[in-house]
Design goal:
206 residues, mainly beta, five-stranded antiparallel beta sheet, 39% strand
Length: 206
């Protein structure tokens, strides 16, 4: 056996061993969610996801891509444990985008601000926002209308996570189109649908 084959076998062995160790990892047992919070919000979401293992399934929309897209999306507010920090300088090139690696951790029974910046004047698009606070896989349309800042091309939503919200992974869906969609899964014509994956937390324990 040559040196290259030996190295490949050794590397494969390490990979298999790692997979086995990850699969055999015991569930987290601490009841203090602070024990699971790290500096990386995505890693924290994965850790906490083992406390709330049931994840909702969502219906995907159909359609075709438009020229308007989100350049930045951020979350701010007292209830935000980890802020969303989504940034793109070009179109995703598809009509449906799931954003999960950039995520936000937010305490329930809190108000936060979701700020969306577009590449075009926001008055040229209809921005429709849906949430699923009870995590049943069914989006509800938010009644809050965005406050538009035309010079900065920004739309600011003030959103309230109800005290009855189910802790765990959920989504905020934003539809960008030149007309108001019939529903959260309606066909998109010259637009983009974004699903931002966020994690709803119970009040952090001190």
């Amino acid at each position: 056996m040559n040196k290259l084959s030996s190295k490949l076998l050794f590397t494969a062995g390490l990979l298999i061993s790692s997979i086995i160790n990850i699969s055999a990892e015991t569930p987290l047992k601490s009841e203090n969610i602070n024990d699971y919070i790290s500096e990386n919000p995505f890693e924290t979401m994965i850790r906490l996801g083992r406390m709330y293992s049931d994840n909702p399934l969502y219906q995907m929309p159909n359609g075709n891509t438009g020229t308007c897209f989100i350049t930045t999306a951020t979350t701010t507010g007292d209830g935000v444990i980890h802020p969303l920090n989504y940034t793109r300088d070009s179109s995703p090139g598809k009509y449906f985008v799931i954003v999960s690696k950039e995520t936000s951790l937010i305490n329930r029974d809190n108000i936060f601000i979701l700020s969306i910046t577009l590449n075009v004047d926001p008055t040229s698009q209809i921005l429709t926002l849906f949430t699923d606070w009870d995590r049943d896989g069914e989006f509800e349309k938010e009644t809050a209308l965005p406050i538009l800042d035309i010079p900065s091309k920004t739309a600011n939503y003030t959103l309230a996570v109800p005290a009855t919200a189910s802790p765990g992974k959920t989504r905020i869906r934003i539809q960008l189109e030149q007309k108001t969609p019939a529903s959260n899964c309606a066909n998109i014509n010259e637009g983009i649908v974004y699903d931002f994956v966020i994690f709803i937390m119970e009040a952090t324990q001190s």
